[in-house]
Amino acid sequence: MPRRRQPTARQERLGIELRKLREAAGLKAREAAALVGSDSAQMSQMESGIAGVSEERVRRLAAHYACTDDELIEALVAMATDRTRGWWEKYRGLLPMPFLDLAELDYHATYRYNVEFLYVPGLLQTEDYARAIFSYRVPEPPYGELELRVRHRMDRKVVIEGPNPVPYEAVIHESALRIRVGDRAASRAQLARILELSEACHITVRVIPFDLDGFAGAASAMMYVGGAVPKLDTAVRDTPHGTAFMDSEAQLGALQTLFRKVEAVSLDPQRSRDFIHRLAKEL
Fold first, then answer.
1. 34, 160, 213, 279: least CB-packed within 10 angstroms?
2. CA pair distance 190, 37, nearest whole angstrom
3. Kind and range of the H or E element at 135?
4. Taking the complete model, does pTM exceed 0.90, yes or no?
5. What are the distances in angstroms from CA 68 to CA 62, 63, 73, 177, 248?
């Protein structure tokens, strides 16, 4: 298969999972390559996502690695043979790759969690709210890119508002609900939008109020996305250097526990809706 100049996060993830299976089997790259008639250079390219992997090769590698997790194997085969060209492709070459990677991650999600302390989660944002956030960045987006970023964020909502929405839960701190990233009218519209979406049976919104005692989890902001199987879950966190995709078993386990801790101290859905109603009346 031809080499890729810029593999997507999903293509890189397939390579990472194949490498995990190889390492669990105690094989070096050159040893695994020899088993499928390849070489260590090509194995390295497959495990980094630079080179594609056929269904046959995924199955042969899994067999040589003595992997007995049939659900995982089928999920990896699906990743290897996926030729989806989703709505995000119209932004290729126009927006940075992480924008496309997040959209593709959404597309394949089986559920989504968000924890936010300073901003309303992206999937719940109104157009005005998103525009205010993107326009405040330093340095400012290149000419003409601001509206593309806003439109991309609105398009991403298909994962919870489209014909096949996934279960979605957002835990939002009161600070994110009170900060006016735009004017008073935009803030009121944003709260109204959250309330509207929270009525959907597949969407749960919870609030952490300021007056909660003993809350030390303000660094818990995250996005957690369910994969086809639990081993293919992905956590996403913002860092000073950009968006970080996390996939190790230890990281995923820690962030699942962290989410449950934050969820446990938040208001239940009905009390959260009542809380947001009160905030909206104050504006």
1. 213
2. 57
3. helix 127-135
4. yes
5. 8, 8, 8, 47, 20
| 68 backbone dihedrals φ, ψ, rounded to 5° | -110, 10
Residues 6+ apart with CB under 8 A from 205: 124, 169, 170, 172, 194, 197, 198, 269, 272, 273, 276
Per-residue pLDDT of the chain (283 residues; tens, 9 = 90+): 567 778 999 999 999 999 999 999 999 999 999 999 999 999 999 999 999 999 999 999 999 999 999 999 999 999 999 988 999 999 999 999 999 999 999 999 999 999 999 999 999 999 999 999 999 988 888 878 999 999 999 999 999 999 999 999 999 999 999 999 999 999 999 999 999 999 999 999 999 999 999 999 999 999 999 999 999 999 999 877 778 999 999 999 999 999 999 999 999 999 999 999 999 999 8
Tokens of 7: 């593999």
CA angle 103, 105, 109 (to 5 degrees): 120
Residues 87 and 144 sit within 8 Å (Cβ to Cβ): no
Structure tokens at 160: 């919870």
Cα separation values, 16 from 22, 23, 250, 262, Å? 10, 10, 15, 29
Q: Which stretches does DSSP call E strand in 107-190?
A: 112-116, 168-173
> Could you give the CA distance from residue 251 to residue 244 in angstroms, rounded to a whole number?
12
- The amino acid present at 4, given as its one-letter code, is R
Query: How many beta carbons lie within 10 A of that of residue 12, not counting itself?
Result: 18
Tokens of 263: 């969820």
Which token pair is 76? 């990896």
Strands 234-239 and 222-225: antiparallel
For residues 156 and 247, is the Cβ–Cβ distance under 8 A?
no
**Euclidean distance between CA atoms 273 and 22, whole angstroms:** 48
Tokens representing 273 are 């809706």
